[in-house]
Records
---
Amino acid sequence: MYSAEAQRNLYELSKKLLSSAAPSLFSIDDDPVARAYDLASVIRYHEWRYALLNDPVISDFEYDQLYKQLEALELEHPELVNPDSPTQRVSADLTADFNTVAHLTPMLSLDNSYDAEDLRDFDEAVKKLCGLPKDADVAYCAEPKFDGGTIALVYENDRLTRAATRGNGEMGDEITANMRTLRSIPLQADFSQYGIAKAELRGEAIIRKDVFEKINARREAEGETVFANPRNAATGSLRMKDPREAAARGLEAFLYQLGYAVDAEGNSVLDRFPTHDDSIQLLGTLGFKTPVLEAAPGSPLPERKVCGNIEEVIAFCSAWQDYRDNYPYEIDGMVIKVNSIALQGRCGYTSHHPRWAIAFKFRARQATTQLRDVEFQVGKTGAVTPVAKLEPVQLAGVTVSNVSLHNEEFIKSKDIRIGDQVLVERAGDVIPYIVKSLAELRTGTEQEIVYPRQCPVCHTDLVKPEDEAVWRCVNAECEAQVVQRMIFHTSKHAMDIEGMGESTIIRFYKMGWLHSIADLYRLDFDKIAQLEGFGEKSAANMKAALEVAKKNPIYRLLHSLSVHHLGQKGSKLLAAELDHVLDLRNWDLERYQEIKDVGPVLAKNVYNFFHNEKNIELLQTMEDLGVNLRQTEEDKKPASAAEGPLAGLSILFTGTLSTMAREAAEKMAAEAGASLSSGVSKNLNILVVGEKAGSKLKKAQALGTVEILTEGEFLARIQQEA
Ligand code: IVH
């Protein structure tokens, strides 16, 4: 769009114009016409850097100064105001009135595909339509399917003259005033240089996911209704009555099709651009935001790709499906287009969609299904959790039939009833959850969810601690709790006993072999070897796994006891201070205060546990059975070093590190006293960036409070004396 030289000149000109802002407007150039021209040129350039490259070269403040200068100049010389001036994006006297307008060519829909087979079928159909042999390779262009509001822009004699929504495909609403406010849409573009007198471009107006979240946060704070998703926020913004409000919504436009282009005589010139790729490149050159061939933000993948054949398309779509959650924009699939315009012509159209293009839809993340029943499950600390039993439904590649309803408050606030149709969502790695119940689909047979007041397993009265949202069974002998504690005891984060999973524990429990966690260490392996589904080998493996577990450091044992609030971190803090686990019998509550990061609630829970004779007996039995209760070397390492060059700092790694594995780097950071963060937030102190760092780096830069280190700087830092 701008050559390096043009960019340098515009930058220098900006600086000159900025330094001459005051006192006299015309200190550089007394000719207001020339000055207005200069100002408009540099402002357009900075809008391009900002809105398309995401990489401004001047500050927002400086941009505002330039803009204000032009505004002041135009106020003084109204004859200089030209409708394409950057100051005319929003004209306050113009309200969006939404006339209906006819598109220059119909805006069709897309056919859908859902898997590799569908795409191969599409490829086969394309070859047939084009009269190509079955084994020919057709080149396709693949790009994200943006999930926003579809727009069509008309340029006549290099000026934006009209913008419209898709409407019914033939006619749309005129939204020119609103679209003029988007800095990613040039008000003028050099189409004539390519022999184009009039053009219609298609694209999508979208809102970045993080901007969407900010908009919703603000709306929530102001008591307004929030948007369900970025798409609704975008389509709503297209039709704002006041363009100034539309401007405030942070819309961006991606253009992905040159739908119509004629010369001054009205003859189509579309065939001057032989491939889809050529026409997208043209739009990029003219200053439009398009899906680019370079890496997508924060990604190893190109945003758009010209693929040599359908197998390349399939691989590209599948890679994007995995990357989709990291992309700053909401997308619901990919669009695949025959790259050659000549071949597109041979494919033609149905009344509904072009035969040369297809959408590849990502696996659905939302689905509706029926809530058949609610079960109340008792956890290892007695918390009673309602779990919805759903009619099984496919969601982003997995079958979902159980989802947690968390607590009584959740059920009430969402007015969820048994028999309801519910909307279930699974985004990224997030556990599936119920978004809402569809009250409008009720038949009258739905039943309210009755929360039990007694433990569903042992029937003890449930208790709801004042500061908690959950009801609890307080009977430590409750069968459900005993089994859950055993399951937790053997789990990966606790004693990590391989081959001793949930189903095995339940089976042994039902056979009367297990009454407490101590019984795990006196199982009869001869008997186990006789069981159906076991045998000598798996019994021997289980025995070996238990032998290994017996030697575990005591922090694992402490964690495995299911003391409420005692997690791995707390367990490590305690383990570092103990010669023997049973020393805790002699600790009073004050002793816990001496450990940083151990709060009064945790202290009380551990204190109570070690002042209960039954628990002491349990641990003594375990010690007799060979389980280690003495501090090991591993226990001596403090959980978070209070000393060290990174003491007290939180750290996060992003991108690919070149000299060490991520895990190794994290371990070094922890040993230097840092705590590992899971994401970029105000609480993060240090971000270490490797190669191809993406959104995390941008976010950290935007926050401005995070110290950003290269890999080398990080290494130098941890080698410093504290
Ligand atoms: S091409 C003639 N490319 O998806 C076909 N459409 O279901 C022109 N969409 O509302 C469409 N991203 O607005 C194309 N990269 C992309 C797209 C895209 C989103 C929308 C399109 C239409 C819908 C079709």
---
Amino acid sequence: MAAHTVYKEPAPLMDRENPLESMMSRFNIAAEILGLDDETYNVLKAPDKQVIVNIPVTMDDGKIHVFEGYRVIHNTILGPSKGGIRYDKNVHLDEVKALAAWMTWKCAVVDIPYGGAKGGIICDPTTMSAGEIERMTRGYTLALKDIFGPDRDIPAPDMGTGPREMAWLMDEFSKTNGMTSPAVVTGKPLVMGGSLGRTEATGRGVMVSALAALKKLGLKPTEVSAAVQGFGNVGSWAAVLLHQQGVKIKAVSDISGAYWNEDGINIDEAIAYKNAHNGRLEGFSGATPMNPDDLLTSAVDVLVPAAVEDVITEHNAHDIKAKLIVEGANGPTSASADPIINEKGIMVVPDILANSGGVTVSYFEWVQNKQGFKWTLEMVTERADRIMSDAFEKVYQTSQKYKIPMRIAAYVVAIDKVAQTYKYRGGF
Ligand code: GLU
């Protein structure tokens, strides 16, 4: 019989700020502005459901590891819950709760009929074989078979997961229920019901909202420079699409370090290099290595944090030189940095608006799966761009109306939509 090992305790949130507290402090400000009544406030402030699962997985050496996984359903007032699954060693229940709530607000901002959810497993996928990841994904799906469903809760990729994991999830769920259910998950490979345009959707939304913001600031894309933190799916697509619009990308970074080129980095070359070198930019000759901590405070007009939470804090916000921050990541700015950024007059396109292009095209994928009809790339792009532009304008007008920063305006738009719907639907 295989020997059993006890998986280590979840990683603590360590010295980073608690994303749940960051989310709640913005929520509280927006609730105050809206004059939200106590009943609605109490319904929206906490997740509807938090599921913790233990997943025993036979590892390649024959031993069994028990992984801890989560699925948090924040809210389903607008529709079935929607949100990605994160595989990372720093996954923490409070983080998943914040990410689930952000999904509720994100879907409400772009006006798509979903509630919010998020999942995660504490694991290090970079040290696991494909077989181990597959068995863990199938175990997680089976453990959550009564939570997931095309009209209940619809997962998608997030950090550490992609089309491959979504394919396993779809297959396991379908087998368990005795029918093929493509609409149970989005971000699938194209051949099995994925949508054209889904891969680049989040980065594209970042580009569209950055362009809308530049216009409000009276700046032309061809006249500005940018730094992009994170060169995964979101960061690399945001960089390539901004570059195509004429923005000079002076800095990019990934797990291996940060890289600077005063004349602008050739992003297509950087992506080709990354793809040929194990997904890392290390050794890329088209830019000079720089201190990764300096990227966020470098001399650029636009900053795109597209990596992890809480990278812009009260410690570095004072030194930011950019005029515009477009948040590709979820929660890259901790709440303690907000007043400093506002004081400096920096415009922020907040995460729940800037990165909502991903879930928007996830929604299109789900609609196509339900219709059994595939849309063209033009249909996807044109509709997604319109949704992003409309959402940007709505948030911008709200910020003007209440004289509040874009971030709080996005929460106001989102909470107002959910609260109004709740009033019609009613409680128990
Ligand atoms: N994980 C992505 C996000 O944070 C996508 C979620 C989805 O497509 O459901 O927005």
---
Amino acid sequence: MSTSSPDLSSLRAAFAGRLLTDPADTAPFLTDWRKRWTGRARAVAQPDTTEDVASVVRWCAQHRVPVVPQGGNTGMVGGSVPDDSGRALVLSLARMKRIRAVDPINNTLTADAGCILTEVQQAAQQADRLFPLSLAAEGSCTIGGNLATNAGGVGVLRFGNARDLCLGVEVVTADGQVWNGLRGLRKDNTGYDLRDLFIGSEGTLGVITAATLKLYPQPAARMTALAAVASPHAALRLLELAQRRLAATLTGFEMMSRLCGELVARHVPSAAVPLAAANPYCVLLESSDPHSEANAAQTFERLLEEAFEAGIITDAAVAASIAQSRAFWALRENIPLAQATEGDNIKHDISVPISAIGDFVERTNAMLEQTFPGIRMVVFGHLGDGNLHYNVNAPEGAGGARFMADEPAINAIVYDAVAQAGGSISAEHGLGQLKVAENQHYKSAIELSLMARLKATFDPLGIMNPGKVMPVT
Ligand code: FAD
Ligand code: 2HG
Ligand code: ZN
């Protein structure tokens, strides 16, 4: 790839005021949410339309300039920021915010990639529909970023991940052509599924500029409860019972370890809930009932009584109001912020078969505690999907830098255990730049070879978000 500096003047002329080069203006685009990676860039381009995106990508292809697509910059694995070579151009989709169409009969909504997730949820609500993708970053992440990472979140148990919620995409390819694949079809077997290749590709195959999304009916009532359990094994027994009793109305099942509750109490006291800091593990359950509040409350309370009587849960609190329900969710949603405020941390966004989670946590906790005495496990996440944020913080009072030096050894223990359980080293956050090498280690040769061939086919010049997902060759 060229190291000389191509002239930006044609882009600057086309993007009057929307091509940032001043370091004070570009800085927010160059560091990720975790503040773990800071890169440099030639410029940050801010397109308004799909044709703008295409013209930037064509310019980048012509001059062999790497393109780093960026949405809300809330990713956890460093995918949205450039490396420190200063050669890349950051392509921020943040100004592309049009809701293009809502079709309540087809139950679809088509939105520009830069729409914030909450804006999409609100547009669906205005049409008396639900767009069920939901995650704590929803006030700043974009639908393009959600699709590019195939985000999960707290509704996957019932509605699936971003891929399951997307019927069509519009994409600017690596050579700057526009593919309009905005089909609102539930059935379309006309060959290879290009949409599904772009979803989850983290900006390494093309730029998603718009998407057609699936909508659902709004529920009549929602119930939320926090239940205390002794262990992840007990949480799994609760999951099995809840799925039996609530069937498809069970829409959320999140688990958190005691330290999560303690860290929220310490760093985000307004979101603290005493139950979470007083028990080894807590589960946040949510049901969404299509019929009525009375029906929802009755089924939910019966479930918790039965769980008590069976000795599965030791304590529980059912939210008596919308405000209390929000408070329970605030506890859960503030764990990442509380963990970041506590200090240097190592994240493992892992999945294993749901049935294997109890043993996985017990065995891996024991191995880590034995090898790194005092290490603190901050374990939480989407238990109903078999996906845990099996995160760790340094021992209380220990220096962060020394702890981070142990990251490769800590990762090896965790990921070997994940591999042994038949799991994945990235359940929902993607690979970004964080897990490229580890993916090469844990994936089979044939998978890696097919991935490399796809990358070369879609992006022969290697300009699309280089160094993310795949190693630079
Ligand atoms: P960015 O961070 O800007 O980009 C992410 C990746 O997508 C990068 O590789 C980027 O190059 C690429 N990209 C962005 N936009 C485009 C585009 N239009 N076309 C092509 N490529 C693009 N994630 C979950 O899955 N589940 C959670 O529950 C969850 N909770 C979170 C909670 C918090 C507090 C935070 C900070 C993050 C959380 N995340 C979660 C991670 C993050 O929010 C998601 O990965 C989200 O989908 C990223 O969207 P974004 O717009 O911020 O993308
Ligand atoms: C969540 O579920 C996010 O809250 C973030 O996926 C997880 O901070 C993390 O590790
Ligand atoms: Zn998560």
